Sequence to fold (305 residues):
Amino acid sequence: MPIEKTDKIWMDGELVAWDEARIHVLTHSLHYGSGVFEGIRAYATADGPAVFRLKDHIARLFDSAHLFLMDIPYSPEEIVEACKETVRVNGLDSCYVRPIAFLGYGEIGLNPLPCPVNVSIAVWPWGSYLGEESLNAGVRMMVSSWRRMDPNVNPVAAKGTGIYINSSLAKIEAIKSGYDEAILLNTQGFVSECTGENIFIVKNGVLITPNLASGALAGITRDSVMTIARDLGYEVREESLLRHDLYLADEAFLTGTAAELVPIRSVDDREIGPVGELTRKLQETYFAVVRGEVERYRDWLDYVG
Ligand code: PPE
Fold:
């Protein structure tokens, strides 16, 4: 997806011009995937742009860094403020926000401990991640031949740049096979998640998503949707799912900051059917929540000011 340029990028405490936000080719993270990042969205609301669950995303960024023994040279509060400042100076009503902390230039080799840690925050307008039509019509999924990494191969709770090669392999396979997106099973054969989204099914009126022991990321959209569904009175369960549970689901959808809430139309060519009632209700509520239209969840919004 081509990136739409904006004006300024926050780099190590300074706002620099978009085209000046450069790094050296011997940056450690380029060679060894030693970075951690977040994907966040700011939405237009009646009170101006607000970043959705910003503090939760930044807490996860620091958790990711902790898992790799990376010392981010700022406090979470400073990064929260820097995200808001970057949205503000670029004058955008709604945008995607991408903070990244990465090992920089100065050391090479597999001991990352002496490397400097650099931090940057870029923002840009980003439409529907899986295509404009995806939100309405849903997507066609395939179960990938690639497995989600075992938690003893990589800390799967971390949003680490290097570990996304697993997602990219699955995505390439899905696209080249004519599908929109891939679902990854873990090494034990249980459903884990998608390349950049969590997965949910509805069966007999109950909302079910793989538990975190499946290797799925603790998605913030996943958490928001589970909370909203419970508040609407639905039963929500986190449990192990097999691939046939996907084929036999009454409804299915995926969640992620970039993708938002996207219905699943079919899995491995097994039709799940037209977009289900609960999926549609959760999707509508989610969009109302991120736009600040539901009082109960106003705490999730961080107004840019
Ligand atoms: N699983 C994975 C592997 C993942 O990357 C994401 C976010 C999620 C689940 C959902 O998490 P959350 O956004 O907190 O609900 N993927 C981000 C990166 C996408 C990208 O292409 O880059 C995102 O949605 O921003």
User: Anything to note?
Assistant: The chain has eight helices and 17 strands. The pocket of PPE is lined by residues 39, 167, 193, 196-198, 217, 219-222, 255-258 (CB under 6 Å). The two ends are 29 Å apart (CA to CA). The helical segments are 28-32, 54-67, 76-89, 134-137, 165-176, 220-231, 243-247, 277-290.
